C-alpha cells in the first residue's frame, strides 16, 4: 500500500509518494521509491499497488513513449488499451500516475484514463487523505506545488497506517 499525489500549480508539476511497503498488516520496508522520472521523456511516474506489476507497467509505458516520440496522450491511451485487452496484463494490480510538463493522468487496468480538472490527483491507500489535503491547500494557501505535495503526504501519513513519512518528491517545470 502507498500514497501518491500530484499537484500542478503555476509553472510546476510535482508528484510525490511515500516509501512504505506493506504485506498484509505488516510493514516490510519503509524506504521504497515509487516515484520516478523517465528522464529521456521528461515524465514523472508514480504507482500504487503490486511493485512487480507497477514496474512492468512503467516499462510498458516507457516503451509507448519511445514508440510515439514522447507523446504522452497517445502513450497513455495505448497503455490503457493494452492493459485492458491483454489477458496477462489484465491481471496486473496497480494504478499509475504519469505527468509531463503539460498533462497529468491516472491510468488503471479497468481502462480508466483520468486527467484531473483542478490539477490535483492522488492514488493509493492514503490517496483520498492526500487528495483532500492537497485540494484544501491549493484553495486556501499560496504554497508551491512541491510544498503542497509534501504537506499533503505528511497529513496522509498521520492518518493512514499504510503510508509513512519517507517521501520521494519529483518535479518538472511546465511548458511556457
TrEMBL record:
Keywords, sorted A to Z: Allosteric enzyme, Cytoplasm, Hydrolase, Metal-binding, Protease, Sodium, Threonine protease
Root EC class: hydrolase
One BP term from GO: proteolysis involved in protein catabolic process
Active site annotation, chain numbering: 2
Annotated control of activity: Allosterically activated by HslU binding.
Iron as UniProt keyword: no
Assigned GO CC terms: HslUV protease complex; proteasome core complex
Alphabetized GO MF terms: metal ion binding; threonine-type endopeptidase activity
Subcellular location: Cytoplasm
Record's catalysed reaction(s): ATP-dependent cleavage of peptide bonds with broad specificity
Record-linked CDD domains: protease_HslV (cd01913)
InterPro entries attached to this UniProt entry: ATP-dep_Prtase_HsIV_su (IPR022281), Ntn_hydrolases_N (IPR029055), Proteasome_sua/b (IPR001353), Proteasome_suB-type (IPR023333)
Known partners and oligomeric status: A double ring-shaped homohexamer of HslV is capped on each side by a ring-shaped HslU homohexamer. The assembly of the HslU/HslV complex is dependent on binding of ATP.
Role description: Protease subunit of a proteasome-like degradation complex believed to be a general protein degrading machinery.
Protein name, entry field: ATP-dependent protease subunit HslV
Gene (name only): hslV
